[in-house]
Amino acid sequence: MTAKKRAKTNSPPSLRTGKVAAAIQAGRTGLVPSALKVVDLIVQDPSRALTSSVSEVADRAGTAESTVIRACQRLGFKGFHDLKLALASDLATQERDRDDLERAEDIGPRTPRRDIPRRVLHNSAVIMEDIARTLDLDAYEGALEALTEARRILVVGNGTSSAPAQDFAYRLTTLGLMVQAPPDTFAQHLIARALEDRDAVLAISHTGATKETLTAVEAAHSRGARVVAVTSHLRSPLTKHAHHLLVAGGPDLGFRLEAMTTRLARLAVLDTLFVGIALSRPKRSREFLDAMADVTAEHTL
Questions:
Q1: Pair (130, 142) in one structural domain
Q2: Is the same domain home to 31 and 46?
Q3: Which of 23, 93, 133, 178 is most buried (CB neighbours < 10 A)?
Q4: Where is the signal peptide (predicted)?
């Protein structure tokens, strides 16, 4: 074993997966610098954080105990003790998967080509597990109710979120819902201004700060429409207008691959919404899915 390899093995493992890692990834953009120091300490040496008191973490971060507690609360935990309980579970899982995590840790220009599929697919599996642990089920139920009961639905997504928006709108149409998802941003804005309190808008955005998406969402919100947001961050301009917030992000896997992992996360959450809506109105959904099967057959050679 080389000295470089021994140094890597003996260094404390960083926090890459699990509920705490996902919460930090989703919430760090809304943290003040002093709170960021706290979460960075947790990420860099989670084992030490697990055995530390609030005051010890505050001392190492050079901040107040109240800042440590507020940082935990901003990430969605009741306090530092609640975060430590989640951290203990995450570390146990990470220890079981240590070898796989180390193999999939870095993806870059020097990654052997034959290694890329295994590393990417392994990280995809990790992302799915994290979403299952961190998805806000109350927000999910609220989103299902808003979309299922809506008279009509506007689906908005621009940039890298455009394709998922178009796909989801199409799939909702196969369930018999009245859905619009114009790719043109002017059309998005115009339709949003015509929505009412019986309607809903589903906005998909990685950053939650895409101007064109926000313009449509703000217009729909002002008209009383229910807003469901699928995004990667707990706090952003988009989340301020969301009645039901579904946070689905993914870790940065290196080589600027965060957008790829978050896209996969958002698609997974959209799948859960599709299934939930279908099961909420089974008879009508079955009728339209049967009709879709007939249409598909007519267009098949």
A1: no
A2: yes
A3: 23
A4: none
pLDDT value at position 169? 97
Nearest CA to 211 among 169, 271, 168, 156?
Answer: 156
Does residue 204 sit in the same domain as residue 260?
A: yes
Q: How is 68-101 classified by DSSP, letter by letter?
A: HHHHHHHTT-SSHHHHHHHHHHHHHHHHHTHHHH
Indicate the SS3 state at residue 183.
coil
Q: Which long-range contacts (CB under 8 A, 24 or more apart) does 96-104 make?
A: 97/17, 97/126, 98/13, 101/16, 101/17, 101/126, 104/253
Give the model's pLDDT for residue 13.
56
* Residue 255 near residue 228 (C-beta atoms within 8 A): no
Structural domain including 90 reads 13-134
Distances from the Cα of 169 to the Cα of 12, 82, 154, 173, 202, angstroms: 45, 38, 8, 6, 9
Are 20 and 163 in the same domain? Answer: no
The answer, as to whether pTM is greater than 0.90, is: no
Q: Given this model, what pLDDT does residue 121 score?
A: 82
pLDDT score at 10: 45
In this prediction, residues 109-138 reach a mean pLDDT of: 81
Instruction: Report the pLDDT value the prediction gives residue 72, as an integer from 0 to 100.
Output: 94
Provide the number of structural domains found in the chain. Answer: 2
Q: Is the same domain home to 108 and 161?
A: no
Residue 30 is classified by DSSP as G
